[in-house]
Amino acid sequence: MEANYERTRYEARMRLRRKKKLIKAAKLLSYRVLKSLIFVVIGMILGFLLAHRTTGTPSESENLTSVVPKPEIPVVSDTPKEIQVLLDPGHGGKDTGSEAAKTPEKSLNLAIALLVEEELKNAGVEVVMTRSSDQTVSLDERAALANDNKVQAFVSIHQNSFEDDRSIRGLEVWYNDVKSSGGAGSKKLADAIHTYAKQTAGTSDRGTVQDEKLKVLRTTTVPACLIEVGYLTNKTDKNLIFSESYQKELAKNIARGIQEFLQSFGTSAK
């Protein structure tokens, strides 16, 4: 009896141990399965996020980055291009020039000079302006810009006026072949521009004028001339000067004269 009782107790203890081992093994298995599932779920989430970032709709900033081209870094040449022509819109800034019309002379000079610049650049001529906006530039600065760069032609553009006699009208091209070291080249430049400018429809021609007093011509050491487009005090001239079609035709003819002058030196374009 006692032996049977001990054997029964032993078997009960063994069954309890096996039961505990099974429970422990089940818990361990459940933990491992749960851990694996967690890694799988994390992997799926990360994969989804990466795939969405690659193929999904980009953010607003990403759109801007992809659409807007990267700015190109300008290449600066060690040797600047040779300036062939220096265009000088007369007056500017505080110096309004003639105020015989509602629009000051300085604005008309700039408008025509910009058209001449466009014509020359389209022809491949290296051209620079003494001013491209309404700014004050002294006469000394204008001459120095021409002299320092040794330009092949300096052309100043102006409008004339004469209150004492409003019947006077017409185009004039001024030059100085005496005191300017541009000398004979200045007369040749004036003649070339005059030849074409006077052909502009409606223009009244007053010819070329030799003058030793104008500072901008007297102090330049390169071929230089000054164009008086017309008289703002004359009604006919004023209407022409304010005409867009006249400005364009005149600018084209001035550019043709400049080009002919440059061709005489074999340097019409670069």
UniProtKB/TrEMBL annotation:
Residues in MurNAc-LAA domain copies: 143-259
Record keywords, A-Z: Hydrolase, Membrane, Transmembrane, Transmembrane helix
Residues that span the membrane, as ranges: 28-51
Alphabetical list of SMART domains matching this protein: Ami_3
Coiled coil, from the record: none
The protein's name in its UniProt record: N-acetylmuramoyl-L-alanine amidase
